[in-house]
Write a structure and sequence with these properties.
145 residues, mainly beta, 8-stranded mixed beta sheet, 3-stranded antiparallel beta sheet, 5% helix, globular
């Protein structure tokens, strides 16, 4: 599947899974870019944290049919719908049940993540011990309030 092109000066962002079976597009500025260190995000990404680009759900256009897996936060009890490609397994999106107007786009799936800079870190107390705090970002030991 080919990706959707965007004009260079546009806010349009596109992305896809590793195999290209699921792609997406949005034409809004992100609400916020968040680093999440929670245990579920670490397991979901297979990395030390997840870089989450939060966008308005109704601005997100998805092509293909991602599969979903539902999780419940161990410490906060919040429901999450984690969307991934059923062919290659790439984590792509997450829906926060407490914020159904927003969708998290996993930054690693963007065709061009340039210009996106995390401004917040959540679940900092779960961060790997080799990750240094950044004084330029708001930091929360749990969820952002």
């Amino acid at each position: 599947m080919s990706t959707i092109d965007s004009a260079p000066d546009s806010r349009v962002r596109t992305g896809r899974c590793l195999c290209g079976s699921v792609s997406y597009r949005f034409d809004v500025a992100p609400e916020v870019v968040v680093l999440c260190h929670c245990e579920h995000c670490q397991r979901n990404t297979g990395a030390a944290f997840s870089v989450n680009v939060m966008v308005k759900r109704d601005a997100l256009e998805i092509k293909g049919t991602p599969k979903s897996y539902n999780t419940v936060g161990v410490e906060n009890g919040n429901l999450r719908d984690r969307y991934f490609c059923g062919e290659c397994g790439t984590p792509i999106l997450t829906l926060l049940h407490e914020r159904p107007d927003l969708m998290i786009v996993k930054a690693g799936t963007l065709d061009d993540p340039s210009g996106l800079k995390p401004s917040v870190e959540v679940w900092r107390r779960r961060a790997q011990d080799w990750i240094e705090p950044n004084p330029d970002r708001a930091s929360f030991d749990g969820d952002a309030k």
